[in-house]
Amino acid sequence: MRRPLLAVLAAFTLGGCYHATVNTGVTPGTRQIEQPWAMSFAYGLVPPETVNAMAECGSAGVARVETQHSFLNSLVAAITFGIVTPIEITVTCGQGEEEDLQEVTSANEFEAAVAGGVPFLVKLSH
Length: 126
What we know:
Layout: H1 2-15, E1 19-23, E2 28-41, H2 53-57, E3 62-68, H3 71-79, E4 84-94, E5 102-104, H4 107-116, E6 120-122
């Protein structure tokens, strides 16, 4: 009983957490797209779905992409013997003209923005 427990403990202790960052050279803004449980399979050989950053970042582009296996992601991968290998993805949008826009999500906010003459960005929900 002790040997399997020691093997599992050693796997968690020696495994560590994977983290990679890609900087594109664009000045980072404040908008981020976060996917804490992007599902990949077979130790990452089958990648997760592509993040559609163009819809969120617009003309500002992407400044940084970070991927990592958090402790909980690694725990799920260990429990499933690598069949399911979730990964955490964070995309930081570039700083652009969208940064200065007020987000409008309701009719009242829309009317206030139009009446005040301030630039705004309409966020539609599905």
